[in-house]
Write a structure and sequence with these properties.
Strand content of chain A: under 5%
Radius of gyration of chain A: 21 Å
Structural class of chain A: mainly alpha
Oligomer: heterodimer
Shape of chain B: globular
Number of helices of chain A: 9
Structural class of chain B: alpha/beta
Largest sheet of chain B: 6 strands, mixed
Distance between the termini of chain A: 26 Å
Strand content of chain B: 25-35%
Radius of gyration of chain B: 18 Å
Shape of chain A: globular
Helix content of chain B: 25-40%
Order of helices and strands of chain A: HHHHHHHHH
Helix content of chain A: over 70%
Number of strands of chain A: 0
Largest sheet of chain A: none
């Protein structure tokens, strides 16, 4: 969800965000209900086909599951030791396929469309005094903050290395938290300046 | 257009601005001063992000204390760090977010976003993740997100501080072309050469206020 939308005109791109999110929820639930390796194999083929239809390319597809690789290996080994080979394959495949499907929704949906969909879904909460725009804005800020905090963390780590300091959780966490709080202050002020809190 | 009437701002027990009285109506106005001289606070007073502790600030006839939200619709503000201004994950989405309150149709929003991105050379990056842009491109994106609203006044707080020479020059060129009045807080004295008026602040007080030549000369003496 960190802005990896790949522009395109595939049927998946044209599908409304709400339909894709609903489809994702149904497919993920089905994945976790399926036990037979045959069905899981069929699901793998379906996910590969969906990626092919989307036209996002193998690089973007790999980027969705790549961060999961070490966790998937650990999960497989743990399940193999604690359960059996069938359990290990099923659990690992379910997880990888669910993440790949979620990634596919992100790759083919503009974040603004996702926000608009959340706002529509949350609209009934207006009766309770909840502003759907603010809720979707918080979600957007959370997504936008991932690369910003990652850049701040890199900056703190590089500053420590430049000063020849050895690794210390405290020496890393304190400046990072201070930087993040400063950034949050600046972002709040900038949002006020853009009139985003005038609702 | 803008009036500061005996304005003082006190923050954390310190007088950040003292007894500032100004009337601003020129097209290009620069504000310079040492770090901590109160220039960023002065800029923030212009759209109600900071409020005076004493005196009052009037922008387009509205008191910033009572009509801050109204004033923010007329006064665009560009911060030093564009990362703090960019809210949405992609370039076009961030510019489109600014237009939410305008009640435009999606097609109109798309058209205005495309137009402003094309004007500032970001149209090729419309669907790119904002965090992958260079520092200069991010500042241009922040500028697009402000200008798409066609503000009556633009306030910039050190807009070139984080930019390389090429992007600093680009921002300076854009500044010259903007149709609306601009107030720029800066340490980049070259940026002010073509300005109509430069205000020098020192320890929260206006110590020089004239055309760029004499004001910058005063500032250089102050700093030496």
């Amino acid at each position: 969800m960190t802005g990896v939308y790949v522009p395109g005109d595939s049927p998946l791109h044209r599908l409304p965000a709400g339909a894709k999110l609903l489809g994702l929820a149904l497919l993920c639930t089905t994945l976790f209900l399926l036990g037979s390796p045959l069905w899981l194999g069929g699901s793998t083929v379906l996910v590969v086909l969906l990626y092919a239809v989307s036209g996002v390319g193998p690089g973007a597809a790999w980027a969705q599951v790549k961060p999961l690789r070490w966790f998937a290996v650990a999960l497989f080994v743990m399940q193999f030791v604690l359960v059996d080979l069938h359990g290990a394959v099923s659990a690992t495949l379910r997880l990888v396929l669910a993440v790949a499907l979620a990634g596919l929704v992100t790759l083919t949906t503009r974040f603004a469309d996702m926000m608009a969909c959340f706002e529509r879904c949350l609209a009934p909460l207006r009766l309770l005094g909840v502003d759907p725009f603010r809720v979707s804005l918080v979600l957007s800020l959370a997504v936008r903050s991932v690369p910003v905090i990652s850049a701040l963390a890199t900056r703190v780590r590089e500053a420590q290395q430049a000063r020849g300091l050895s690794w210390s959780v405290r020496a890393f966490a304190v400046p990072l938290v201070v930087s993040v709080l400063r950034h949050a202050d600046a972002m709040g002020e900038a949002m006020s300046a853009r009139g985003l809190d005038d609702h | 257009m803008i009036r500061f009437n005996g304005v003082g701002v006190r923050l954390a027990g310190r007088d950040v601005l003292s007894d500032v009285t100004l009337s601003l109506s020129e097209h290009r106005i620069g504000v310079v001063g040492a770090n901590g001289s109160g220039k960023s606070t002065l800029a923030r007073l212009l759209n109600g992000l900071a409020l005076p502790t004493s005196g009052d600030v009037t922008v387009f006839g509205h008191d910033t204390r009572r009509h801050a939200a109204r004033i923010r619709r007329d006064v665009g503000f560009l911060f030093t760090d564009p990362d703090a201004q960019i809210v949405m994950p992609t370039v076009a989405e961030d510019v489109a977010l600014s237009l939410r309150r305008k009640g435009l149709s999606p097609a109109e929003v798309d058209e205005r976003v495309r137009e402003v991105l094309a004007r500032y050379g970001l149209d090729r990056h419309a669907d790119h993740p904002a965090h992958l842009l260079s520092g200069g491109q991010k500042q241009l994106l922040a500028l697009c997100a402000v200008l798409v609203l066609e503000p009556r006044l633009l306030v910039m707080d050190e807009p070139t501080t984080l930019l390389d020479l090429r992007h600093s020059r680009l921002v300076a060129d854009l500044l010259r072309e903007l149709p609306q009045p601009v107030v720029v807080v800066t340490h980049d004295l070259g940026l002010l050469d073509s300005f109509d008026r430069v205000i020098v602040l020192d320890q929260g007080r206006v110590v020089a206020d004239s055309t760029p030549g004499p004001a910058i000369g005063h500032y250089r003496k102050l700093m030496s």
